[in-house]
Amino acid sequence: MAKDRAHQALYDGIAQIYDPWSRSVVEDVDFYVEQAVASGGPVVELAVGTGRIAVPVAKAGIAVIGVDESPEMLAGARAYAESEGVSDLLELRQGDLREPPVTERVPLVVIPFRSLLHMPDETEKRRAIAAAASLLEPGGRFVFDVFAPNAEDIEETDGIWLEREPGIFERADWDERARTLTLSVRSAEQSASFTLHWLSAPEWNALIEDAGLVAEELYGWFDRRPYEGGEDQIWVCRPQH
Ligand SMILES: C[S@@+](CC[C@H](N)C(=O)[O-])C[C@H]1O[C@@H](n2cnc3c(N)ncnc32)[C@H](O)[C@@H]1O
User: Fold this and answer.
1) pTM of the complete model beyond 0.70
2) Is 109 exposed, middle or buried (0-12, 13-18, 19+ CB in 10 A)?
3) How much is the pLDDT for 8?
């Protein structure tokens, strides 16, 4: 579903500073590249952003269809793919991840970097997971990562502006009862604020099963250590039948 020009997508306001803001987030790249190479491709990445994952996947020789609602983020992905010489392997489409403009069926669909937490409730999360499942060819995999904070995270960061990168500030406002994190990001030029909605691992598992998938693996980190109740959840799912 393409957005009309008047609509401001959540990340349009920070598209210019997204890459420097997320510069330290590198731990997931090799993991997703390995998943993509093992699948043989093509890969659909929902909420592709500026191509932080999709461009390294394309550089590994795997074709990617990237979907995002933000024209500004997609422009960043286009520029990144061009600069790395992989534009021919990265096809970018503007749209909502709950109704992705994708008719192809693929062996791997990914939603990296907690993007599913933008879905405000279980109904919308269920829609998003069902949409991802619908793009899989038989035997395909859907891989995504999410988090649920621990008390220490909340205590250390709640309500405080931190300079995460030079000139880029971030503030986390946690609501433990509602299970939301409102994240605000600003630089001298750009700013945005958005709310992430977390769930427990059993709740994610129920949504995965509702979508006709089964969780094949649940890791606690990108080195594939098993999930033991920590902050990060990395789900590898396949169709039930
Ligand atoms: C944290 S960024 C992740 C970007 C990229 N996958 C990465 O790993 O760097 C979240 C992305 O989700 C996109 N997004 C949020 N809600 C969306 C929706 N309903 N449909 C499509 N994209 C969405 C934002 O525009 C943004 O690019």
Assistant:
1) yes
2) buried
3) 80
